[in-house]
Amino acid sequence: MHVYGMLLNGEVRPGRSAVRPLVNPATGETFAQLAAANAEDLDESVTAATRAFRGSGWRTSAPLDRSRVLFRAAEIMRERVEEIAVTETRNIGRPIRETRSNVVLGADDLAFYASATTHLRGATIPMGEGTLDYTLREPLGVCGLIVPWNNPINLFTRKVAPALAAGNAVVVKPATATPATALIIGEILEEAGLPPGQLNIIPGSGGEVGDRLVGHPGIAKVSFTGATPTGKGVMRSVAERVAQVSLELGGKSPALVFADADVTAAAHGCVRSMFTNAGQTCTARSRILVEASIFDEFLAAFVNEVKALRVGDPMDVATEIGPLVSKEQRNSVLGYVERAVIAGAQLATGGGSLEGGEYASGFYVEPTVVVDVDDDMEIVCEEVFGPVVVVDRFDSETEAITRSNNSSFGLAATIWTQNLSRAHRVAAQLEAGTVTVNTAKVSHAYAPFGGYKESGMGRELGVEGLLEYLQVKNVVVAIDS
Ligand code: NAD
After folding, report:
1. What pTM does this model have?
2. CB burial class (10 A; 0-12, 13-18, 19+) of residue 128?
3. Residue with CA nearest ligand 1 atom 31
4. The one catalytic residue among 282, 291, 320, 453
């Protein structure tokens, strides 16, 4: 059985912590093992990264030289799509049809930043006769990148690619249960020509390795993706030494369906925006608000599509809904549904786990639609992070906007309407880092992504994602003597 380890200073080797099983969520069986890292490994990786940052020549190399390495890595990723996708599906249970596109999108992130870094410019600032003033954009140093379990490929590439493109060295901490694909992509980057120590991947527990990374004096910036309560702790810890921090946190994102929407397209789009990765996405539009006059028509179309979703073996290309990542996650999701029903909500479909028979001992939850909810119910306010969506009605545009914004989160929102003026008017008023109109798609390499309010700070992807890994130096030169 394969034993994953860590990538430290260009070498793949076992971590010093316990060997633990990596479980296939579709079967409950161990498919590989991880020799996890401990705090000592983390310290060693920061030392290696610091040495690489200062001495490897990566940060002072011509942008086109860094670009060539990232482009080559993107190519190798594309050549190895199937192997990486199969590994990801085994590790997190996400359907193979989705993990294949995750690999391609990850390669796109590498390619985008390979290109973007060659376009960076400073500025010259007029100061009057006798003075030349210009700015330099410089890398930060060693960046600590923390990744959760729900999308180990893309949440890795969207941090690592801009951090390296900008000239930094990095230490990545994947989630302990899902380290496999980050390690493969790390090896690909080494093969493409990245100097040893420039990228270190240290899978270990949040409490030990994550905590040490965040508090380490050698880390110039922490970029964290994960749950909001963990992110708040990260921010407090980083504040102690005034390191830079960016946070990509949780969400409870609304979809607003207006009476003038194409109901069939809206129902289909709401299924896509909610049930990708069995609802384990930060941007799941998990709260659907529908204008009262089309509520019944929309609900019928939506529930029909949800019932038709193909739940099953994630390795089968026909499967649309796989298992949840772990037994704990399944139990947590079922707990939310149970408490919602006790609080008075109704189930339009789903609500149970799927066990036995073809589902063996996998961690499946039925795609679930909850109705008859109040805005202050737990199921409406909190992130469930599973295949559970609430659908409610509204009477006016103002009410839809007010209720959408009445949330501590602000990650994404989707508007379904055929009225162009309404689309732009509502988009401007929604408190969310990403607003989409008539489409489920929320993020791609070219455009910035991130949260308002407790969904985070800072941006990933796009040129904005590159600037997060650079600092500005102003140089003032007297030229009159
Ligand atoms: P989590 O906060 O439990 O863990 C995230 C990562 O932080 C893991 O690698 C974990 O080991 C590490 N960690 C845990 N405790 C730590 C500590 N004290 N110090 C440093 N690191 C620590 O989150 P999760 O359950 O793995 O992921 C799901 C959450 O991530 C959801 O809330 C989801 O919305 C969010 N998420 C956000 C985005 C985004 O871009 N906004 C994307 C994906 C997931």
Report:
1. 0.97
2. exposed
3. 227
4. 282
